[in-house]
Amino acid sequence: AADKIRLIPQDFFAELCEQIIQHLNHKIPGVNTAELCQRIQTSGVEINIGDLAKIANILSFLFSTAARNNLSTEEFVTTLGSAGSTLPKHAVQVIRHVWNEQGKAIAVSEDARTTATVGQFVDMKWKLGVAMSSDSCRSLKYPYVTVTLTVADPSGQVTDKSFEMTIPQFKNFFRQFKEMASVLETV
């Protein structure tokens, strides 16, 4: 992971660290590694989304462990160095700065974080389509709904989940959402 961290420019690494801190503080649902990876690649750095996601998970683990142990900035940086860490100098500087600026807020909210083991809903998109024909059938003309859910898993990794439904399935889906809305209004 240290080799991949070396590839990431300091400003993008700082943005990744800040997003992780915000996620740990429950200010954002997760870290959008896909969008960040695309921007890093556009800047000319060759890194894939899997490697960036691993780095995000490692940093999330480091920050949450430091928060759980209530480490000061100096204790955190010393621990990073004494653990035989081969983190590049710019990464340690960014971690020091981000932890110094925003790390204490995690310590307060970390107890609530340990109870959250379910992903978090971020967004939903849908579109209506009609299948006109296929290899085996010349005239289908059957409508369907494609739904894409954006979800942040407990580690903060943001992913899209897509599925298709027939119109009757979509009507049932919609009915269930209406039921949830009416229950929420009574709370």
Give a concise summary.
The protein is α+β, with helices and mostly antiparallel strands and 187 residues long. The chain is 58% helix and 17% strand.
Kindly estimate the percentage of residues that lie in beta strands according to DSSP.
Answer: 15-25%
Determine the mean pLDDT. Answer: 82
Could you say how many structural domains there are in total?
2
Poorly predicted parts: 109-116
Largest beta sheet: strand ordering: 1-2-3
In total, the number of strands is: 3
Residues in helices, as a percent range: 55-70%
Give the distance, in angstroms, between the N- and C-terminal Cα atoms. 46 Å
The oligomerization state is single chain
Query: How would a textbook summarize the main sheet?
Result: 3 strands, antiparallel
Helical stretch tally: 7
Could you characterize the architecture of this molecule?
This is COMM domain-containing protein 6. Pfam families: COMM_domain. Belongs to the COMM domain-containing protein 6 family. GO terms for molecular function: NF-kappaB binding. The protein is an alpha+beta fold. It has two domains: 1-105, no CATH class; 120-185, Nuclear Transport Factor 2, Chain: A (Roll), CATH 3.10.450. The chain has helices spanning 2-7, 10-24, 33-42, 49-68, 73-82, 89-115, 167-186, and strands spanning 120-131, 142-152, 158-166. It has a three-stranded antiparallel β-sheet. A hairpin with a 5-residue loop joins strand 2 and strand 3. The termini are far apart.
